[in-house]
Amino acid sequence: MDQPKEKVPYSLNSKKVADATKHWLQKRGVTIDEIAELVMMLQRKYYPNLTMEECVHNVEQVLSKREVQNAVLTGIQLDILAEQELLIPELQDMISNDEGLYGVDEILAFSIVNVYGSIGFTNYGYVDKLKPGVLDRLNDKSLGPCNTFLDDIVGAVAASASSRIAHRKQAEREVEIGEDVADGDK
Amino acid sequence: MDQPKEKVPYSLNSKKVADATKHWLQKRGVTIDEIAELVMMLQRKYYPNLTMEECVHNVEQVLSKREVQNAVLTGIQLDILAEQELLIPELQDMISNDEGLYGVDEILAFSIVNVYGSIGFTNYGYVDKLKPGVLDRLNDKSLGPCNTFLDDIVGAVAASASSRIAHRKQAEREVEIGEDVADGDK
Amino acid sequence: MDQPKEKVPYSLNSKKVADATKHWLQKRGVTIDEIAELVMMLQRKYYPNLTMEECVHNVEQVLSKREVQNAVLTGIQLDILAEQELLIPELQDMISNDEGLYGVDEILAFSIVNVYGSIGFTNYGYVDKLKPGVLDRLNDKSLGPCNTFLDDIVGAVAASASSRIAHRKQAEREVEIGEDVADGDK
Amino acid sequence: MDQPKEKVPYSLNSKKVADATKHWLQKRGVTIDEIAELVMMLQRKYYPNLTMEECVHNVEQVLSKREVQNAVLTGIQLDILAEQELLIPELQDMISNDEGLYGVDEILAFSIVNVYGSIGFTNYGYVDKLKPGVLDRLNDKSLGPCNTFLDDIVGAVAASASSRIAHRKQAEREVEIGEDVADGDK
């Protein structure tokens, strides 16, 4: 092209980043419904009337936060590059083998959980240890793809959606019992 | 009393917690306007048209988040108890002297900054080091009250409001240039 | 007294802070051995030869870090003041009822886990959810004392000791297989 | 090759990871001395007798921690891949333009600072905002290389070394004044 690239100044396009986040989660084999099922598993004992629809909605809201999108895209990117063996050898070894002393995957996961506050930490640690549902599949090293970052990220999105539900349910409950509800946590 | 206390089961009242947060900030001598001035100082070079009204609004929104309210109330509480000399002696010494190796004040501050993502960290560290405006007064040990927690908390609220503005301004800009804006960061 | 208090300038005494940490853990009914048992439970599947002696040693090393001491003392202090009903009413309610949307206890716990890096997060979330051993007793609301902070803190110390063991075991293994071991993680 | 790759099981080699960290910092144009100069700038007002030798030593100790090595290698890796334009387009845009709303660089930086506790946060925010010395050069977008992650990482290593010095100096002071020093913070 005649026009040099520099002529079009960079400008963040939020919709593109949001769309890419959904696209890459799907491309790496994770559906919103599977994440919503983790949320249901974590929350149904506290809210017996919780519906899958609500779980899906809360997962989507978590995924609409830019901090979450940044972590999801960066983590999936590192998984892909590990598969392509394009990383610095020492990093390649640690990521492709999901080395226990490499904790950057958990650091990215925590940047997701943090957005909805500290009450999500426990849920994250719990699903990350038990690896129910989709997490078990993502963590299965025999299946080919490198999901060192993705399994932690999916657990963190589920934990965050659980925190979001806890905040909302409290607000709903206060409305029902006729309290003058504060404007917070919206 | 005839009626035992247990008869009225505990139920979180969000409005009361929100109101207490505002009440105690004011009682400890910090106005919303002073925090908004810190925000203006941090952000005006990036957004020359930023108004004090916007800064005040963003500070209020930050203060409406429950995670923020929890940190503000807990921090102010520890300052007050240090003034009243009601703490375990070793803790009393560290808090009333704002001991450099005691970092729980900064930990609470970070739980505030985290809510609006990692882009607030830099602003927090900057105001906490330079101590402009209200922070200088809060940090003045000769004035009597113990503000070991409060100065960090006020800096964190200002840094969070700055992050919030950065997220909103980007969304506004994308609307103006006619981009189809994503739904995130709301 | 004739001599005014100001004559003895404040000077942090690390030993006193360390001793107070051990003293208050014990006074609140938690022994080092009980924390070591949590560590054993978390780590024995990875290191079948792990001894209780090693677990105790690692818990003691974690408790010798000042960041950990600060969090332990501050958390226990808030539990005690909640028992004495000396807190701001809204905070009193949240802490004495271990309100789910109050997350400062988890924030203090995370400041402990952070010292040994992100690999401790998962262990923390896991024990905090399952509440094995001592955590079950601490979390029993019917027993009287308020342990809103203490149960999270004890879980965090156990998770940190587990991380510490993981780092050390790797170093030992590398020595055994004759690798020229790096000097890190000391 | 006849021998399948699986025959050599993965085994973390700590020395290799440590060496790679130093190698890549140097390759990206950052010397230990430059980081030590940042430390000196941050700490000399508190410790007038602080020597460059001590600063260098403390930077080296920070770089010997595995959590730090993981963050340094991962950050530099993402900078390199951004230069090579090998990233997912949306991530490519954000990293190569050091987008203000992309905060993963700061998240990695914080995983470094965390290792020495919360007292490093303020120093990190301060140098990250003022960009003295080497940080100014790293942040100069006109010079070619992409240092979106590296400038935050270098600031974080300097802030951590400053925290480490603060902890050690306190221990030294307590020895001098004849106190029975606790064993912590070693």
From TrEMBL, chains A, B, C, D:
It holds the Pfam family PgpA. Residues 32-166 form the YutG/PgpA domain. InterPro entries: PgpA-like_sf, Put_PGPase, YutG/PgpA. Gene3D superfamilies: PgpA-like. It comes from the Bacteria. This is Phosphatidylglycerophosphatase A. It comes from Paenibacillus segetis.
